[in-house]
DNA sequence: CTTGAAAAACGTGATGT
DNA sequence: ACATCACGTTTTTCAAG
């Protein structure tokens, strides 16, 4: 048994890349529209996309919502130097708090890096107080986001 | 002239939130499916979603692709303390490099925080060398990502 | 992968409450 | 703001090439 996963390599030919770009740009394009873009028929495109999903190349389709419209007008990155043995607790806390947008375990002086949203400085402060229970924190406020959600291309 | 934007407040009732959750979970759901989920008809749902897009509440629909499958097996956050007057140059560089996934202007000792992808440590090192032209850098390698792409709920 | 075809599901616009 | 209906389109599944 050679491969466990059907290796997405053959999916990344010219047409596959074209499809991947289009779906990153607009995930709600119909198969018929996609077919017109890449010069195939709709069933052929549907099968390609289905294989991209099955191999895990495409992990899902997400609506991108305006955080500010939901009240999260500010963004911050918080580095946490966890107290010994509190890693699991911090991860559970991060998973429970809707304000925690991302949570990464990292190498270096701190062991975690969180991306958090907050309505205002008071809200952010409350979060930081809660986080300080797990370790020393260092936070960095985002002034303006210059770039996000880039369309990815293959590097390998 | 009261409001310039038709204020998405009325879009965030129970049904609106339900729709928003579903579309964050699976952006390719049909209007008919969405209608069944929330208990409305398809045309009603289509109009609601169209208004969510028009008001900017929904900013788009993106396919989420597996970065590792595209060759970007490692992720790092890089803080850059830019040299005086080089901010615009750094922003242009960040926009040009496909490896730069996010670029934020931040408050604190450093003025920029970048999220970058790379194929391996050599690739990452090449990036850091290029970035060092714009200022002093401090990079943090991601070991494992515990949380990302959370479904957002309103806070206001 | 294409073509063709057929059935089910879907999107859209008009109309009415 | 929503329901209903009607029409055209899309999706899906087959077949055969």
TrEMBL record, chains A, B:
Under the GO molecular function aspect, what terms does this record hold? sequence-specific DNA binding
| Keyword hit for Transcription | yes
Q: What are the HTH asnC-type domain coordinates in residue numbering?
A: 12-73
PROSITE patterns in alphabetical order: HTH_ASNC_1, HTH_ASNC_2
Per UniProt, the keywords (alphabetical) are:
DNA-binding, Transcription, Transcription regulation
Q: Name one GO biological process term.
A: response to amino acid
Q: Which GO terms describe its cellular component?
A: cytosol
Parts forming coiled coils:
none
Matching PANTHER family, A to Z?
HTH-TYPE TRANSCRIPTIONAL REGULATOR LRPC, LEUCINE-RESPONSIVE REGULATORY PROTEIN
* Official protein name in the record: HTH asnC-type domain-containing protein
């Amino acid at each position: 048994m050679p491969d466990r996963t059907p290796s997405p390599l053959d999916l990344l030919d010219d047409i596959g890349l074209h499809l991947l770009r289009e779906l990153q740009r607009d995930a709600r394009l119909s198969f018929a529209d996609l077919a017109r873009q890449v010069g195939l028929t709709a069933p052929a495109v549907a099968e390609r996309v289905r294989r991209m999903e099955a191999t895990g190349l495409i992990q899902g389709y997400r609506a991108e919502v305006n955080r500010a419209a939901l009240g999260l007008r500010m963004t911050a990155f918080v580095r946490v130097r966890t107290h010994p043995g509190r890693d699991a607790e911090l991860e559970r806390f991060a998973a429970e708090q809707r304000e925690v947008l991302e949570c990464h375990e990292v190498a270096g002086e701190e062991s975690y890096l969180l991306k958090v949203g907050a309505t205002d400085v008071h809200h952010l402060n409350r979060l930081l107080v809660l986080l300080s229970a797990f370790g020393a924190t260092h936070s960095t406020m985002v002034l303006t986001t210059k770039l996000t959600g880039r369309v990815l291309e293959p590097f390998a």
